Every structure is written in C-alpha cells, then in structure tokens.
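Researcher: Next entry in the queue.
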Amino acid sequence: MKSRRDFCQFLIAGTALAPGLSLATSRHGLAQGHENSVRIAWPYDTSSLDAVGIGAQRSTWCVSLHVYDRLVTYAAVARSDGTRQYDPAQLQSELAERWDISPDSKTITFHLRPNAKFHDGAPVTAEDVRWSIERALTVKGAAGVMAVGALKSAEQLKVLDAHTFQVTLPAPNRFAIPVFTIPFAAIINSKLARQNATAQDPWANEWLKRNAAGGGAYKVEAFRNDQVVLSRNDDWVCGAKPAMQQVIFQTVPESATRGALVERGAADIAIEIPPNDFAAILERGKARALAIPMPNQMDFVAMNSQAAPFSDVRVRQAVAYALPYQQIFQSVFRNRGAPLFGATGELQPAVFPQPSAINTDLDRAQALLKDAGQAGGFETSLIYSAAKAAYFDPLSLAVRDALGKLNIRVNIDRLPGAQFDEKVAARNTQMLLDNRVAWLSLPDYWFAAFYTGSSSSNLGNFASPRLDQMLKDLPGDASPQVYGEKTREMSKLVLAEVPMIPLRRGAVEFVMSRELSGYTYWFHGLPDARDLSKRRP
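Model: Structure for this entry, 537 residues:
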C-alpha cells in the first residue's frame, strides 16, 4: 500500500486482511478473531504514549486510559439509547481500593489494591504512585491541572507503606480526589521508567513517548503514529475484565472513509463524523449514528475583553443580543447537544455551562451599541480552526450576517490548527469561535480555567477582580447549599459580562457497528474499549 488513503480504500472494498493490518496480531502472529477485537477509526495521529509529557494529544489521553491506571475513576450511568455516560458526582475506586479523609479534610490516604501489578509483572507500590504524581508536577501543563486540586509540591506526597499513599493539603479542596481521575495522574512503573532515564532526562520523558510502563486493562502490542494496537491484560484487577481481547486505533484522515469502514464492517467505531456524513449514515441505517450530549463541553463565540471595542461590556452584550440562536442551533448544530440561550427564571445553582437569559433582540443590541458610542458599527475579525470547519464554517457565516445588521463588518479567517493556536496564545485576537471541554466538570473549575488568568484557556481574555475574589472566598469544603449559591453568583457575573457567548453544550457524534454495545462517554470525548462488547452476527 502506498498511502493511508490506499489502505482505507482497500478496506472498504471488503478485503478480509490487508497488509496495513499486519500490526493487528497477537504476540504469536495470529490475527485476533473479529468477535474478540474492536477497531476504532479516528482522524488523529498518535505521536506519543505519554499523557503527561509535552506532545500529548487527545489520542494520547485516550490510549493512556487503557494502558495506565489512575487511583480513582467515575461511575458510568446508563442512557436511554443503550450507551453510558460518566457521572462526575460518583467517584469510584480504580487502583486505590479505598481512601480515607481526615476530620479536617486536609489529609487524604489512599489504600492501593495489594494484588495490582504492572504489565511486566512488577507489583504496583505506593512509591510508584508518589513518583508518578511528582513527575506530573514537573510538567507545566499537567502541573497546572493538578494545582486545581491543591497539589503543587512533592513535599505533599508521602509513602506510608508499600500499599498506602498519602496526600496533605494546605486547606480543604473539593478537587483533591477528582484530580486523580485525569490522564495526567496515570500511575507509571517507576522502576522501569528509571531504568530508561538519563542524567539529561531524569523523568524518562523521551523513553515514555514511545514505550509504555503501565498496568492498565490493556497492554501496548504495537505502536506507530497511524496505528496503536492493544491487547487485553488478563491480570488486571482494577475493574471488570474487558470483553475485547484486542483494540486497534486506526488513523483514517477522511471522514467519509471512516463512516464507510463501519458500514462495510471493516471498523467498529468511527468518530469525528461531520454533520452531513452523520445524517447520511443515519438515513442509510447500515450502522448506528449516535450523538451523546457532553455535559462538560461548551461551543462559544469569544471576544477579547481587554481590547477595544470589546473591552466595553455593552459592545459584548450587543453582539450577544444580535445572534440568531435558534437558527444556529437548528441549522448549524442540527438540534444536537443542548442549547445555552434563552433561559427563563433564576440561574441554576452548582451548574455550568448553563443557559444564559440572553436571546435574539436586535432592538436591544442597537441600543447597547448606541450607548457604547458605536452606533455606526465597526470592523472586526473572526477566526477559527480549520480542524473544526464542519460546524464553524456555517457558524461563522451566521455570525457575520447577524452582526452585519448592526453595521459590524466581520472579516472571517479560517486558520490551520497550529496557526489558530498561536494566535490564541498571543492573546491579541478580536473574535473567535471555539469549544472547550473541562477535565473536572464543576462550575468553579470552569470559572478558574476559562475566565481567569493569563493562559490561552482564558479565550475571552477576561479579567474580573470580583470573580477572582469570589473564587478565592469559596471554601474548599463548602456545603452543597453554600457551593450552589456562590457558583450561581459566579454564573450570573460571567453570563452578564459575556467575554464568551455560550451557544450550546455539544454532542459527541460517532458511528458504531450494530453488533457493538457498551459505548461510554468520558470527559475526554473518545471511546473506551474497556466497556465494549460485541454480539456474534
């Protein structure tokens, strides 16, 4: 095969086994039976196996959750369509069989499963946990998320005995346990990693990019950028034994090809399916086309609240009132997901993202512009990533046309992903379209991560001393009632000042074989093969 395109077309043609599939074999060189394996077609390359290190991608995080354990995870609850969805309100054990919290909520003691082993047979110890979390604290991106749980220093990590690990906190923190669910908290075989460390690379960062040192439900059988093959770890004790013996993550760049692979039986799941392809597959009925609402995601229009004219809250509000929300939700988003506009009554406590009271009102938008001294309109730019063009191409046109009614002249610029990220990091954009997911889906995490600070995640470049103080004053062990009221006030603030205009909570759209069941939506938005099963055709 000369290219991945040739390989994918070869699969569609119905060939049972192509040369490009040669990696999908057992240690003994025999291809796994189709009923015992699952093939997932996605658009991503996977250049690293290290979820903590520099260069980690969404695909890395997904593979990592199969290969590495974390101390804790979330329960999954059934949905009416037969799929499941993680529940951020229900923590449950993974590598830690239980944990204790001190009376002052400042010491957390994790008790590890005594029979847990890494893939090489070495026992998992508290020292492995300590080393793994300390390593995460040395990497900027991972350390920033761990800090949300008040984990900032190796001095907070303590080994009590071979199977007991303890964390001390400066103050109670509601994220101190949930933070151990994320890919950055993967538990690594520290002895194996240290054997492959160097004086220049004491944390084995380079080695871990291309090699796994985990103890999770699956082992890495073969790895290259365009295909990752996993085999079941039959000695795994941190959850129910997976039904699938082999998992293949296959890079297929063309979205139409991904869907066709599932329809022809050459793949079991295809993700990142554009709306037109999704509708066509749904109509043909050869495979299941599913859309699961994402509670921890938000699509939005962001405005640079630190640069004129968007530094004036009245201009931001005028833009918000000008948008045709219902039209966007129906024609752009195809009624999938959950709308984040037109709320009536009081805002909900302890919920974010949640619908804003703002809805389309051109008269109010014009009055706000007049009050801001912008009655004649102005010229601005709107950027977005080409990687999200399937939805953002039509969305950008809807925004441009709506603002044109206010004489706001919008220049649209669809940028390659890397160039878009550079402009966002420079914090000098005017308007942009994007979406984000939250690792930890609690309101104060959203506000801290996306509405404060100088990082690129603050896409509206929002600065509010009032919000900063509200977050600072929120007790880490606040009662549900106090937490609900405090976060409701924060929601009121950010939805009134609109550095970002919420449009919808999106839906993860994918195509799945009719023989497959057990799909679970997780916060990273990618498939989890540990829960999948397949009935014989």
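Model: The radius of gyration is 24 Å.
Researcher: Noted, moving on.
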